[in-house]
Write a structure and sequence with these properties.
Length: about 170
């Protein structure tokens, strides 16, 4: 398995992976799947802001993708990032999510970020909660009934992971 920077040519596969979870899951609170053009715009925005956008592949097949983005835009949040990770349907528990998260954590740490936040759709999303816990994230909160999707109220789970020295010292 190779984890690498995403490329423009990956957009159709990224769109397909994400579209599946928009249509069939509750991890994303979107109700309509974005187009290739919109996914390309989102990827470009992540990269233009200096964050990483990664894919995992094997034998040329994309297994999943992950990226970091600003947690919030106000300046005091500048040392905190939010992560997103999506694995292709049917490919969970094969190591792609873990490989993507490990690389994303390493890159964000190297850039001087001090905290990574996971904003997980659906408190029943055992796969994402388990992946984040395995990668050192700890439960930070639950926002009950924050979304309405697929005919039910959906919670938001917050998890956090210190990066580098975390809050043990001031940032440089």
């Amino acid at each position: 398995m190779l984890v690498r920077d995403s490329r423009e040519g990956d957009i159709p596969a990224l769109t397909a992976i994400y579209a599946h979870w928009v249509r069939h899951g509750r991890a994303s609170f979107e109700l309509a799947s974005p187009s290739d053009a919109e996914m390309a715009r989102r990827r470009r925005a992540v990269l233009d802001q200096g964050y990483d956008h990664l894919v995992a592949e094997t034998s040329g097949r994309l297994l999943g993708y992950a990226y970091a983005a600003a947690f919030r835009t106000r300046p005091a949040y500048r040392f905190t990032v939010e992560n997103s990770v999506y694995v292709a349907p049917g490919l969970h528990r094969k190591g792609a999510g873990r490989a993507l998260m490990a690389e994303l954590i390493a890159r964000c740490t190297a850039k001087g970020f001090r905290l990574m936040v996971a904003v997980i759709g659906d408190s029943a999303n055992a796969a994402s909660i388990g992946l984040h816990a395995a990668m050192g994230f700890r439960h930070a909160g639950l926002l009950p009934g924050t979304g309405w999707k697929h005919g039910q109220w959906v919670d938001t789970v917050l998890m956090t992971r210190p990066l580098g020295e975390g809050t043990a010292s001031p940032p440089e």
